[in-house]
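Students often ask why we bother encoding 3D structure as a string. The short answer is that it lets us treat folding as translation between two languages. Here is a chain of 170 residues written in the first language.
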Amino acid sequence: MCKKSCNFAANFNHFKEIMEKIDELDRKILKIITQSARIPFKDVAEQCGVSRAAVHQRVQKMFDNGVITGSSYHVQPRSLGYELCVYIGISMEKASMYNQVITALQKIPEVVEAQYTLGAFGLLIKVYAHDNEHLLQLLNTKIQEIPGVANTTTLTALAQPIYRQLPIEV
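And here it is in the second language, the structure alphabet:
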């Protein structure tokens, strides 16, 4: 079955409640660690004027509440042989098939993002492929074969001139 992330309304309300609880110190910490994820908590504490333990507790609380969802290294897909980045708009047969479609998409490793959208498509997914042949194989034998997928529209990304986190207002 679909993971917790499929329940859009519940997630929205959850994050709305959490954002109301984030104070100025949390925002300062977030601003610092989003600019440099490898910065030691000791340095964050110095910049914020609090103890290292306070920073650790705040960061852990934000992890527990889903404000921070990870701290990872970003690997360039091209270094792994993925030459194409595409966005695929998916129209579903019925909106009620959303959970089924998401569950099936989660099983395709080349699908790295999915957004539930309003407008021309019910879903917009981000997919990496080695080349055109690989993309065609993903579309024809995996994505378009998912029960509930009515049709797809593919957009090829030529470049990614902007990639950043949202600014943290303090």
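Translate back mentally: The two ends are 39 Å apart (CA to CA). Keep this in mind for the problem set.
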